[in-house]
Amino acid sequence: MHAFARLLPLLLATTGALAQSPVQDLPKDLHGRWTSKPAGSAAVTQPFDLENIQRKDDGSFSARLTWTAADAKCTIRYQPITGRITSSGLAFEAKTPCDQPLSAELARGAAGAWVGMASNKATPPVVVELTAK
User: Fold this and answer.
1) Which domain holds residue 106?
2) Is-annotated flag, keyword Signal (predicted)?
3) Which domain CATH number covers 118?
4) Fewer CB within 10 Å, N side or C side of the chain?
């Protein structure tokens, strides 16, 4: 099953249950992995980090993003980003050094874990699962 299809019910349930107010406490850092599970191929997984996460007064946050790409020349290293604080977690966008846009959403899960998905603008888009703590 496509990664997005597996994650959609979880994300919708989480978003609906927490839609009343934005996430109150943000972690200082999130360290996690993205995982792609292409049909008929072995899973690909690489690390990502959001460091020095700081809430802003306008409902956004700033952080430094490191996103290890499957192609090393496209890896994002310590890129300053500004994202949105949503009712269920965090959302952000970035662009890789290979000029590929990236869009990600993370929701707070059980026991301090964060889960979500990210996608690019390729045709067809590549959707990956995210897990972080």
Assistant:
1) 3-132
2) yes
3) 2.40.128
4) N
